[in-house]
Amino acid sequence: MTVNADAQELAKFSDLAHRWWDPESEFRPLHEINPLRLDWIDSLAGLRGKTVLDVGCGGGVLSESMARRAAHVTGIDLSTKALGVARLHALESEVMNLEYREIATEALAAERPASFDVVTCMEMLEHVPDPASVIEACARLAKPGGWVFFSTLNRNPKAFLFAIVGAEYVLKMLPRGTHEYERFIRPSELARWCRDAGLSPAGSRGLQYNPLTKRYWLSDDTSVNYLVATRKPA
Description:
The chain is an alpha/beta fold and 234 residues long. The chain contains eight helices and eight strands; from the N terminus they run ααβαβαβαβαβααβββ.
């Protein structure tokens, strides 16, 4: 099976792996938005007691927080260094209902179809060569009636200005080169791929940031960062 991954993208995040759990590092925005996305996912899917898959888990920030909500979580990624950091942090934090695997989404879908109540794939689609393939695999991994969540960046001039010029060059919230505009995904494109994978839309939210107050919040504005909830038909 051809692995749906970009070696340069993997190397980029592997080089930063040791800083994943530093809330003042390049991953500070991730730590700040995590409570928002966690609460939104939990409000819809109800994480307690659920079997959850976190696709593209990186250092495990979302995976570990979902496990703390009493979910049984599996995090997968293709970055050996990031997974090493994730495993170590979970061990130090004594989070037991959590495991990590170095495996591609498509490979796990072939191995464990219809195995998870909830599948999350956050801030990953814009970093892979074939996002539609990841979406299809996520749909296969979900149980009938299960929830599948995605988050990514819209592709329009405002998103370019805010997510690349603003975040990477002006405010320096992220390292330069973190994102490539051509890989951003319009909501209509994401919706089409979800429909093709057999997923039904169940809600969406936009993520906004005020550089003066340094505060994030969820809104109805999906013009830059946005989250999508879908369900697999029962």
